[in-house]
Amino acid sequence: MRSIRMARRALQVASHEHRRLADSPPQADTNSDGGGGDGKKSGMTIMVSILVVVIFCTLLYCIYCWRWRRRNAVRRAQVENLRPISSSDLPVMDLSTIQAATNNFSKDNKLGEGGFGPVYRGVLYGGQEVAVKRLSEKSRQGNVEFKNEVELIAKLQHRNLVRLLGCCVSRDEKLLIYEYLPNRSLDAFLFDSNKRSQLDWRRRHLIIVGIARGLLYLHEDSLLKVIHRDLKASNVLLDDNMNPKISDFGMAKIFDGEDGEVNTGKVVGTYGYMAPEYAMEGIFSVKSDVFSFGVLVLEILSGQRNSGSYILQHGQTLLRHAWELWDKERGAEFMDPMLGDCFAMSEACRCFHVAMLCVQENPDERPSMSSVMLMLKSEQMPLPLPSEPPTFARLKPSEDFRKSLTTKSDSTSAHSVNEVTITAVAPR
Known about the structure:
By secondary structure, this protein is an alpha+beta fold. It folds into two domains: about 95-180, Phosphorylase Kinase, domain 1; about 185-425, Transferase(Phosphotransferase) domain 1 (Transferase(Phosphotransferase), domain 1, Orthogonal Bundle). It has 13 helices and 13 strands. The protein has helices at about 1-25, 30-80, 95-100, 145-155, 185-190, 200-220, 275-280, 285-300, 310-315, 320-325, 345-360, 370-375, 400-410; strands spanning about 110-115, 120-125, 130-135, 165-170, 175-180, 225, 235-240, 245, 255, 260-265, 285, 390-395, 425. α1 packs antiparallel against α2, α6 (about 200-220) packs antiparallel against α8 (about 285-300) and α8 packs antiparallel against α11.
């Protein structure tokens, strides 16, 4: 309506200007006929120019209003789509209940913060402990990721997947309520020089096998074929008995094809764990998760993070270091020194071998998760020789970034953070 009124007003102004020019007395000139004609032409030109400008501005305004209304309609639709989650799928909790459980999201109850937003510990009225993920306004994730995680986890049930207890959508608040795992995430132990000693070989082997079981369920055994796309140490939670549970399904995708791959225009995840075909071309498949699993196994075996700080210290990625030792048949040197001699050499070597198969550059050469499980559990199963992992080219970091990486590697962290490394994937 406002744009129509503006157009009418512009037409009135143009009409008034035309009448003023038409009614004005002709100026005295020796060539009166030519002067009058020029005056009329000049007036007509001015009127047409004004009309063109007004129509163009009105058109721009209409386009702006249309886009604004469409954007808000999409936002409203997203919020409305989040609301009709029936109790049969997932319980919907009141915001007041969550505020009371977390002491109104107090700092004392904050467990950490990731890409989704802060995570708080809460205690419900019945005494049940929960972990509450709160969507941050500055979060890289949004309504789509929130709904994606709700729909996926509500339909996935496995002992090696984190259990979603409920959700809450109220005004601007979007909350996910999970089972509380007091040991938090794997990275809090694995990359902490003080806590890493608690991960003896038996626990590390159980964690590797447990993660493999969870991925196998996602890829092949569940009703939905799911690709996680962001498997890493901070997205593996540990329960009271140090059993692993895969979490954070905001980036996950349901895979429709039986065998194949999908090309996406949006690359999400963490580069240190990202398969080269996904990082460079946006192509992901179940083999992308297999690559991430291989990187994670190498981190569990070595106690080192495949990140920019590792590159600064060693001049190469953890994958390249692992390949050098493999090529020289010195795989035992890759093991975490904190393990000492207290580990089963045959099991460790088999895990190392399987990890090298998972991080091969060609996705077709990587094993499926069902094959990974067989290779991990069966000592009699022969393992093929792996090919070389992808080459990663290091970007030249600034001095301030070097200091921040050094500080991060030396300090301990009580929570998990989605770390994007400074490594960039380059073709060989």
